[in-house]
Design goal:
Helices cover 35% and strands 14% of the residues. The protein is α+β, with helices and mostly antiparallel strands and 227 residues long. Strands 4-3-2-1-5-8-7-6 form an eight-stranded mixed β-sheet, with helices on both faces. The longest helix has 23 residues.
């Protein structure tokens, strides 16, 4: 995919996130690692509904702007993205958003660590809750670092969610899966409580990741909260 096509894909995903209600105002950010080691990123201070290719920036790993329209700068949350690329050489894209159902878990200080739907078991396993961190500070990358080696999707306490992947479309799909799983979990709670898939079938589903050509990391069977 050439840079023009990649910029169009970034814009398309930004628009989808806004249409789905995952971001409001200037929320959320998206980044992609380019072949030369630089990064294509969304700018700060603009709604994802208004993102267009010429508004996107290309930056270095030190946040220096290489390409971009005058007046635009990267989000202060880019530090979180760069930590993902620094700690995981298999990561090619990062998506951060505030999908309401998943963010509700983050606000309730609940990790999503119950193995209840087939798709979530295969694609992400459990999703931990990174501790509260003040936006724009080094606290944010430090808060997610302990989880990056095992997880491709994280909840950010009182904030939102983060998805990483080898490419942008996969990162976006992981965020979609997370939000649907969160909604389903809330409905199941209303109906009396979600029931986990049997451990035997969970292990079987995890082994099937290679058959489905699922990329990235998986924690196996891991709970972060007590029953």
């Amino acid at each position: 995919m050439n840079i023009g096509e990649l910029k169009e894909q970034v814009c398309d995903i930004c628009h989808k996130m806004w249409q789905l209600g995952w971001v409001a105002s200037n929320d959320g950010n998206v980044s992609v690692k380019l072949e030369d080691g630089t990064f294509l990123v969304t700018p700060t201070g603009i709604s994802k509904s208004y993102i267009t290719p010429e508004k996107l920036l290309i930056i270095t790993n030190e946040c220096s702007i290489i390409e971009g329209a005058p007046g635009y700068r990267p989000s202060s949350e880019i530090k979180m993205h760069l930590r993902c690329y620094q700690d995981r050489d298999d990561v090619g894209a990062v998506v951060h958003a505030h999908p309401p159902a998943a963010t509700a878990f983050a606000v309730a200080h609940l990790p999503m660590d119950r193995y209840t739907t087939i798709e979530s078991v295969v694609t992400m396993g459990s999703v931990p809750l990174a501790p509260y961190a003040t936006p724009s500070t080094s606290e944010v990358p430090e808060s997610i670092a302990p989880y990056l080696q095992e997880h491709d999707v994280l909840l950010l306490e009182n904030h939102g969610a983060l998805a990483i992947a080898c490419d942008l479309l996969t990162a976006y799909y992981r965020m979609e899966t997370l939000e649907l799983w969160a909604k389903t979990s809330i409905y199941a709670h209303i109906l009396g409580g979600a029931k986990e898939i049997s451990r035997e079938n969970i292990d079987r589903l995890c082994r099937m990741r290679s058959d489905y050509k699922v990329t990235g990391r998986h924690p196996g069977y891991k709970h972060y909260r007590e029953e």
